[in-house]
Design goal:
Order of helices and strands: EEEEEEEEEEEEEEEEEEEEEEEEEEE
Distance between the termini: 108 Å
CATH class of the largest domain: Mainly Beta
Number of strands: 27
Radius of gyration: 40 Å
Number of helices: 0
CATH topology of the largest domain: Jelly Rolls
Structural class: mainly beta
Largest sheet: 6 strands, mixed
Helix content: under 10%
Amino acid sequence: MIWSEKLGKEIGTYNSLGGLRINPKPFIHSTQNTVVTCRICKGVGCNAITHESGLVTLNPCVLCKGKKEGRIELSNCGMIAGAFSSTSGKADITLTTNGDVLYYNSGRQRLAIGSEGKVLTVSDADLPAWETASGLTSPLTANLVINDNINLLFGTGSDASIDYNGTNMIIDPRVSGSGSLLLNAGSFYLAQAEAITISSGAISPTRNIIHLDTEGSGATDDLNTVNAPVAIQGHIIIMNSTTGSRDPTIKDGGGNLLTAGDFTMTSNQDEIILINSQGGSGEDYFELSRSDNA
């Protein structure tokens, strides 16, 4: 227990290590020292002053300072730190500006408040330091990498998203709500055409526009099956013949192709458009239109 003769009441306690624990609530406004007895050396080198602002100045015992592992503990109050010499007990460094930081580096040091936008971090020397906040800035000056299956969400209600699921880029304007994907200006282009050769009556396209060739560069060949690249409905393919000297035939009902009759492309200007509207590899492709320009 720490007893104040001036106040006639207990104002704090010592812990088992000799640490001084002061509760400022019992104090009254006084510019006089409130002298307390040091438990370690039994001297009267400890005192506390309560200022008009309500702040309490605590002065550790200068008689035995440094001989024990004692410390000052504050209960139910905030703290404004000053820096003290290990020998004199007087302030060596003063926190002069709102936001100054006190830290230890072979002694107590002052770190001046950083400028606006700076954040407090740890330097390469393992000391506190102010640095420019990291994160996204506009405009970006380097690639921004988004991992698989991480959604970029848009709208206050996370209404739309863009993500890459490890295989496909997915744009979903209806995560929440009933929005649509609109192209307000410019043009929409499909990917560069893919040259595919029929193999045993089938092809496995990875793009939308296909230049179709016969197997083994034969004069003719039949296409019966289109294997969808992903099991998602809505895959559209636009096919023409690679060359007018070889004539592939789109077979109606030969595999998973449902067209308005067989269509032999005798010119590289002949075109046919098919859609997989049911989804899934092996599902039917339906003819939307054809253009016979032979």
